[in-house]
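I would like you to sit down with the record closing this message with an eye to the fold:
=====
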Amino acid sequence: MAASNREFAARVALRLIPAGHRAARWTDVGELGFAILGFLAYFLVRGAVVTRAADALDHARDIVRLESGLGLFIEPQIQQWVLSSPWLWRIANFVYFWCDFPLIVAVGLLLFWRRRDQYTKLRDSLLLSGGFALLIYMTFPVAPPRFLTEWGFVAPLAVFSNLSYQAQSMHPFVNPYAAVPSLHVGWSLLLAVAVFRSTRHWYWRGGMLLVLAIQLVAVIGTGNHFIFVGLAVCLAALEITDHMHRRGYPTVRRRIRTWSHLGR
């Protein structure tokens, strides 16, 4: 019985780190549960660290002063440009809300069935970058620019669309002081990398680059993030993920097989 349980545990673990390029099988659907639990944990922890509101506002003002000193405080101009046209702020609102997690789910499911290897890399890099971001949210909370009304910022997602991004999720999942880093931009980058690695069709690649470009403007135009975006966090997570798939996972697979005596 012990050997049987060990073999079962090994097979489950090996499903989470598939080897090579292959499409998913119906027996792999348990992996979706693993991904769902991972993202659920991320959003729960993210919503649980909503503390130090005064510090978050002070940090946001510190960033404004830093950007001003460097001549990089361009967020008000970008938002005014977005607000100058109904079409621009509608596009910015749409991309900010619908081209974040909903798009991640859509692309993730497609890769899960067609390119399981790239799905696994996307899953790992998303969760790893989310872990990095959580550490920053806990140690250095930052209020979004839309809270800094003294500089003329507004929240067009709510004002012009009668839609509050924060209200779309249940309260335990919401953290209004997670303006730095912007995972909207960072995760759009990870999606683009996954699509580029998965297909050579120009329209898929071009579509993801367009989403990334618009998201860069949307996070500022909606007053939710500063130009200190999440690219560095996600690029670090991507590099670690690639290393895991090149060396870490093959080693883990061999050790799991040795431990469970699979294939003997």
Remarks:
- The chain is about 70% helix and 0% strand.
